[in-house]
């Protein structure tokens, strides 16, 4: 072994240990000292960055870059989602949707209906967008049905995150399809076949089981935000209008996806659909439509509509800071070179393609907190190895990567903090609700791809 290899091994070992120490420090600071998550993650970021050999100034810049980038991408979406959710609740539209769904399915069928609704809403949407749309519906459904909050929430979370991991046109699976030159239609078909049992196990079944063992109450501040307070002269919107408003961003983003797949890239129709389907644009239009159709047209005074929109932003301030801090930690770990470290280890591994793809994606997701980074890097590593594979094989490898990218997401994952803050969970509870749920999806994805490989290849 030459000196350069020894230095490489020492640096990589140090980097992995620093990641583990930083994550442990974040957990201890939040759970034992009760420091706010934002401050705890900031401290953990400096532990990881300085321990890995980055200058203090570089750590600070990486944290700012990661936090700013994530908030620039997701912060506005979350804010618009909070506005839309508040208007849906204040106008009574959320109550209308919930009462209609409850009329169609009660009791033991309700978690299954929530999983199905989440899959429909989550098909074209990023997880963050789907979550901010579903949260008010989840709260109102749990309140009206008098069911445990987790029994309603977990199927919805499972429906959205499973499609995000396994179904193009979500970014992760789409990146893997492109890098591995897999067939898009085949990947979507096989992804759906795997997604159905994954949603069933991680959603209704796990939700029913966990809700009997963990009592989670609706958080007071967000619960009040997503409650109706209609004036006497204010009309409750009909179901068709209510569901149209909440599906408007879904329709616009689905149109953007279809434009990318089926239309000429530079055609006027394609450019228009892509613009309207940008998450920021789609949600902005949905909020404006809600202002007009659910607010002014239903008899809500204009000053009250303005107050509802303004009031909706205060409860999400801590959520935005926490998510931004998670983005800062992720960027610091990336700048320290953790993805390259895991890539080097993976290149020397010798094991079946599906298991190798899944394990590399798992390791990268644990280290970086980003499904996109895990998917992109893993697909890049495996691309030379899958040259000459059939379309079914390459599609299954792409799906195995997507499944691995959601394994046991924890404190360096923005979604972890979104779920924690939205549902008012303790750190341990978030691990059970979110990390365990995603682990079920990930493992089912691996098992599903392996079985399909055995049967089809």
UniProtKB/TrEMBL annotation:
Q: Which NCBIfam families match?
A: gntP
Main location, first listed in the record: membrane
Q: Which residues cross the membrane?
A: 12-32, 38-56, 68-89, 109-142, 149-167, 187-209, 239-263, 275-296, 308-329, 371-390, 396-419, 431-456
Q: What is this protein called?
A: Gluconate:H+ symporter, GntP family
Subcellular location(s) of the protein:
Cell membrane
Pfam families named in the record: GntP_permease
Q: Which PANTHER family match?
A: GNT FAMILY GLUCONATE TRANSPORTER, HIGH-AFFINITY GLUCONATE TRANSPORTER
Output the superkingdom of the source species. Bacteria
What keywords is this UniProt entry annotated with? Cell membrane, Membrane, Transmembrane, Transmembrane helix, Transport
GO MF annotations in UniProt: gluconate transmembrane transporter activity
Topological category with respect to the lipid bilayer: Multi-pass membrane protein
Q: Which family does it belong to?
A: Belongs to the GntP permease family.
Q: Name one GO cellular component term.
A: plasma membrane
């Amino acid at each position: 072994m030459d000196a350069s290899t020894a230095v490489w091994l020492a640096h990589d070992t140090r980097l992995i240990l620093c990641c583990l120490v930083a994550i442990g420090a974040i957990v201890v600071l939040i759970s034992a000292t009760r420091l706010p998550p934002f401050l705890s993650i900031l401290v953990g970021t400096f532990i990881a960055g300085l321990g890995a050999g980055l200058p203090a100034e570089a750590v600070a810049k990486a944290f700012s870059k990661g936090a700013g980038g994530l908030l620039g991408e997701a912060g506005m979406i979350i804010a618009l989602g909070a506005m839309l959710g508040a208007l849906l609740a204040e106008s009574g539209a959320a109550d209308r949707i919930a009462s209609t769904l409850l009329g169609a399915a009660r009791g033991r069928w309700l978690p299954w209906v929530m999983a199905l609704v989440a899959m429909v809403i989550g098909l074209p949407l990023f997880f963050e967008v789907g979550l901010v749309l579903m949260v008010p519906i989840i709260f109102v459904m749990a309140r009206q049905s008098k069911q445990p909050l987790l029994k309603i929430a977990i199927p919805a979370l499972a429906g959205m995150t499973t499609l995000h991991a396994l179904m193009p046109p979500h970014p992760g699976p789409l990146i893997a399809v492109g890098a591995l030159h897999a067939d898009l239609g085949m990947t979507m078909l096989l992804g759906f076949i795997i997604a159905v049992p994954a949603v069933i196990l991680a959603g209704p079944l796990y939700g029913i089981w966990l809700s009997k063992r963990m009592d989670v109450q609706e958080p007071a501040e967000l619960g009040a935000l997503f409650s109706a307070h209609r004036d006497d002269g204010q009309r409750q919107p009909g179901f068709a209008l209510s569901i149209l408003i909440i599906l408007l961003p879904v329709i616009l983003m689905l149109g953007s996806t279809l434009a990318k797949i089926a239309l000429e890239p530079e055609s006027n129709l394609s450019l228009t659909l892509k613009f309207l389907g940008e998450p920021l644009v789609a949600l902005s239009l949905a909020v404006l439509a809600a202002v007009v159709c659910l607010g002014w047209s239903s008899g809500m005074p204009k000053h009250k509509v303005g107050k509802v929109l303004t009031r909706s932003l205060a409860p999400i301030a801590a959520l935005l800071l926490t998510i931004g801090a998670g983005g800062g930690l992720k960027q610091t770990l990336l700048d320290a070179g953790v993805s390259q470290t895991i890539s080097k280890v993976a290149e020397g591994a010798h094991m079946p393609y599906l298991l190798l793809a899944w394990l590399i994606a798992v390791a990268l997701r644990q280290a970086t907190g980003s499904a996109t980074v895990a998917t992109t890097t893993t697909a890049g590593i495996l691309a030379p190895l899958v040259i000459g594979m059939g379309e079914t094989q390459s599609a299954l490898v792409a799906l195995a990567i997507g499944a691995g990218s959601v394994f046991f997401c924890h404190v360096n994952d923005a979604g972890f903090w979104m779920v924690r803050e939205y549902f008012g969970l303790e750190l341990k509870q978030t691990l059970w609700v979110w990390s365990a749920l995603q682990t079920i999806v990930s493992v089912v994805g691996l098992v599903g791809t392996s079985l399909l490989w055995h049967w089809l290849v």
